[in-house]
Amino acid sequence: MKTKYLLPILFISIMTSEVMSRPLAVQNFKYKKDIKISGNLSPNGIVKLTLDEDIYKHSFYGDLRVTHNGEIVPYHIQNAEEVSKNTEKVKPELLFSNKKDNLEIYVIELPKLPEGMNYTKLSVNNSYDYETSVTLKLGDNPDQFFDSKSVFLYKYGNQSTSEIDLGGTKHRFIRLEAEPGSDLKFPSAYRAKQNKNLYWEKSHSVANPELADNLCKFSFANESQSAFQILKLEFEEGNWERQVTVRAKIDKKEWDTVFEGTVSHNQAEGVNTEIPLSRTISREFEIQIYDGENETLHLKNVITVQPLEEVYFFANNEGNKDGYALYYGNPYQWSGNFDPYSYPSGDEIKNNDSKTATLVAEIENPDFSFSVLYPPVSGYLATGFFYLGVAALLFLLFSILKTKRSVLAESESK
């Protein structure tokens, strides 16, 4: 190959590598946590990182950035779950089977579910090769079916679809409508414990409220700056309905309304009333209850709840565990917008083992500084240049008007 062709190709490859590697302007983030990955890390393996309370105290959520040797690593974030690994195999009972010329119908009953368990899969087999489309319906009794979906089943030699995903249902009755000649058998079904979302919970002492006309206000200092997205309230009264407003401090001076609406409680539903908030709070907050002409409610206990969240990302091509870090603490940073193929999908997370990563102690980013290219300095400069431009235009306009007046005055004097 001639030299004149080598140089353009080399230039293009260099430019492409620079585009693909996205360095992060780490000086714009006030806080940093190094990431420690346990065990051996395979190239492009999936890494799971659980966020801790420091993140919610000092981040602005959308400003989270995972890096490897200073380059941005795309990630996916979701609520953490306690995934049940234990499954039970049970035998279904075929209640009804009808094979017509244009349709085969099967009705199956599954054994009663123990508390806290769901049905996950139904095994299907056949003694010979086949393919068929099946309509699956689920219900609480054989007279009425609710959920419905279509499933394609096949067996081609050693390759087959031998299980139907039941989606973690509590319905015990299954109706299947298959194409004629399918001759399906259902040897077993599987059930497992429900996956549980994980949370931080913190109880807050309730002080005497401030009373006003038709209003009762409870204030909470939240001195530990415990982060939360949900409030659990417990009252002495069992049944009630009130207009409730929750306000919280979002910075040193500014307050914001994070919930406003009508809340009702029935003692048959449990002890606590849950109120979801519009944003994560980690500072002091207050609860305002409008009683109207009703008797004042007596608040006994307040629990703040923060769902645990996990970040998933792909490891580097070399499988190197060193050099990973999490940056945060930039109120001007936009939320991450990554190509959906650049981070693990839900199926990849579910079907592959993830390497667990942990966050080390929080430090203030030693590289943190204000840059003229990024907010807030860039905003101040832009505003300054705007007003400077306006001032220059006004000065120019004033000069033109002054010159015109001088010319008019000279012409009148003549």
TrEMBL record:
Record key words, sorted: Membrane, Transmembrane, Transmembrane helix
Transmembrane intervals: 379-401
Official protein name in the record: DUF3999 family protein
Organism of derivation: Leptospira brenneri
